[in-house]
Amino acid sequence: MDILRIIIAILLPPLGVFLQVGIGAHFWLNILLTLFGYVPGIIHAIWIILSR
Predict the structure, then answer these.
(1) Which residues span the domain enclosing 13?
(2) What is the pTM of this model?
(3) What is the Cα–Cα distance from 32 to 49, expressed in whole angstroms?
(4) Distances in whole angstroms, Cα of residue 3 to Cα of each of 6, 25, 40, 50
(5) What is the DSSP string of 1-52?
(6) pLDDT tens digits, residue range 7-39?
(7) How far apart are CA 33 and CA 42, in angstroms?
(8) Going by fewer Cβ within 10 Å, which terminus of the chain is more open, N or C?
């Protein structure tokens, strides 16, 4: 299941975080990072998925 979440996180980082932790602080932070730059959003999403 983590492989699927990582693929989703690469395509849509906030969706990957949402599937892992739901709507919370990490989700909103990921949206902000994705708006500032796509790559920081991907890095944060993968980090959240792999750390939980």
Answers:
(1) 2-51
(2) 0.91
(3) 17
(4) 5, 23, 19, 10
(5) -HHHHHHHHHH-HHHHHHHHH-SSHHHHHHHHHHHH-HHHHHHHHHHHHHH-
(6) 999 999 999 999 999 999 999 999 999 999 999
(7) 9
(8) N
